[in-house]
Amino acid sequence: MQFINRLEFLKAIGAGILAMPRLAAAETKTARPNIVYILADDMGYGDLACQNPKTKIPTPNLDRLASQGARFTDAHTPSGVCTPTRYGVLTGRYCWRSALKRGVLNGYSPRLIEPGRMTVASLLRQNGYSTACLGKWHLGMDWQSKGEGSAGKKNGWQVDYTKPIQNGPNTVGFDYYFGISASLDMPPFVFIENDRCQGVPTVEKTFVRKGPAAEDFEAVSVLPTLTRKAVAWINQQAAQAKEGKPFFLYFPLNAPHAPIVPAPEFKSKSQAGDYGDFVNQVDWTVGEVLAALDGARLADNTLVIFTSDNGPERFAYERVQEYRHYSMGDLRGVKRDTWEGGHRVPFLARWPGKIQAGSISNEIISHVDLMATAASLIGASLPANAGEDSYNILPALLGQKLEKPIREATVYHSSKGDFAIRQGNWVFIDSRSGEDSKEPDWFKQERGYKPHNFPGELFDLSQDISERGNLYGEHPERVRELKALLQKYKDDGRSASLLKR
């Protein structure tokens, strides 16, 4: 009898042990959040009302998102231009380690993400997520030609738009894709769904640049179309998400990048011209996404991130003159630059019950951190050849007390290929100037910027957020330290430690 009782006891214990992983898995399954990552195109740090009280643009939905979650004041893109940032977002790796060392791709460029490289989408899909990319891709895809030769090399008319597109978003982890191949000012002007064009370009249109276009494709309709698609996709995922199959929506917008084409209902909604109206329309798009999450009762278990791919386009200087609107805020520089205005961007994050509402974080973070953060969210381990520059910023998102900065240092890269490195309050620009986009003389005078004769620039951002005073000559030891660390990151092929994974 005693033996039987002991046997039954052991069986019970064994059954309990066997049940524990299933219980843990079920708890993890229901706790894993949906992730919505909204990436604006060319929006400046000073455009949002919640960041710039002097803005001339109403952004009520983004302000609400900030009030319901966290606003990061020191968030950075890894580059001052589009393609490299998007590569970094999805791979957790600085783009200058790839084949693209400067500039951006165009609408016909071949794929940039290397075959077999893990992306945030492939990581999440491997762990049970539904994944979608809706919007501007700008990471290359392989078009098929009508005849011999390389498709798209001349003017795009030799591309066979009826054939499947190879090596697009569906091959790097996305279950579903709908959008445009690159920026809205880059042909071809046609929507793509998965690996097929939605129509055949038969006419030529000009949206800044000239090129092949589908007859019914109009630039002004792109953002409304993408918004409708995003709302529809969220609604399609609702039932599965509630049953424990979460989703990842990567939503890279075409706006407020040129062509600046606000829809008629947004005209004159700002005091900053068409650009301000277009930013207001971006704000509306964010509101539609938030409303879709609310309507589907998914908001409480969804991490929503809103940010931008780089600073504002150089036309921001014209808006200062005409409207006294500073898209760059108090920062120096615009898109392409290694000065702060080229890569310090808005970054808002909401996850009800997890991220403290109305919180503000001064932690230095980078867009390349999405990979390691997503892995931490789902309890996954990254292989050594993935996310080489990605740090887990989940503790900062959750407002946990940090004993030291999450990132050892952060690297920035300009359009023409110049480097800068930030560590603590210090930023070192490894070129004579952080300028890629031409800074007008009148703006230099207004801000008090003066020329110098040093081979690089060094700023203490805690004392000089507008980067007026170059300290390169006063702190040679700091220059040597940061230059050596930058070189180490280049030589090592990574900047994030494997030991912290």
Ordered list of secondary-structure elements with their pairings:
Elements: H1 2-31, E1 34-40, H2 60-68, E2 70-72, E3 75-76, H3 82-91, H4 120-126, E4 130-136, E5 176-180, E6 192-193, E7 196-197, E8 203-207, E9 209-213, H5 222-242, E10 247-252, H6 273-295, E11 302-308, H7 316-323, H8 340-343, E12 344-345, E13 347-350, E14 359-361, E15 365-366, H9 370-378, H10 394-397, E16 410-413, E17 419-423, E18 426-429, H11 441-447, E19 457-460, H12 476-492
Parallel strand pairs: 1-10, 1-11, 2-14, 3-15, 4-5, 4-10
Antiparallel strand pairs: 2-13, 3-12, 5-6, 6-7, 8-9, 11-13, 16-17, 17-18, 18-19
How would you describe this protein?
The protein is an alpha/beta fold and 501 residues long. It has a single domain (32-408), classed as Alkaline Phosphatase, subunit A, CATH 3.40.720. The chain is 30% helix and 16% strand. The chain is built from twelve helices and 19 strands. It has a ten-stranded mixed β-sheet, with helices on both faces. Helix 5 (222-242) runs parallel beside helix 6 (273-295). It is globular, with a radius of gyration of 24 Å. The termini are far apart. Residues 1-30 have low confidence and may be disordered.
How far apart the termini lie comes to 51 Å
- Number-wise, the strands total 19
Name of the top-level CATH class: Alpha Beta
CATH topology: Alkaline Phosphatase, subunit A
**What ranges have pLDDT less than 50 throughout 5 or more consecutive residues?**
1-30
Known CATH architecture: 3-Layer(aba) Sandwich
Percent helix, as a range, is: 25-40%
Question: pLDDT average, as an integer?
Answer: 93
Q: Please give the count of helices.
A: 12
Major pleated sheet: 10 strands, mixed
Side-by-side strand order of the widest sheet? 7-6-5-4-10-1-11-13-2-14
Evaluate the radius of gyration: 24 Å
Categorize the overall geometry.
Answer: globular
> Strand fraction band?
15-25%
Which class best fits the helix and strand makeup? Answer: alpha/beta
Number of domains: 1
CATH superfamily: Alkaline Phosphatase, subunit A
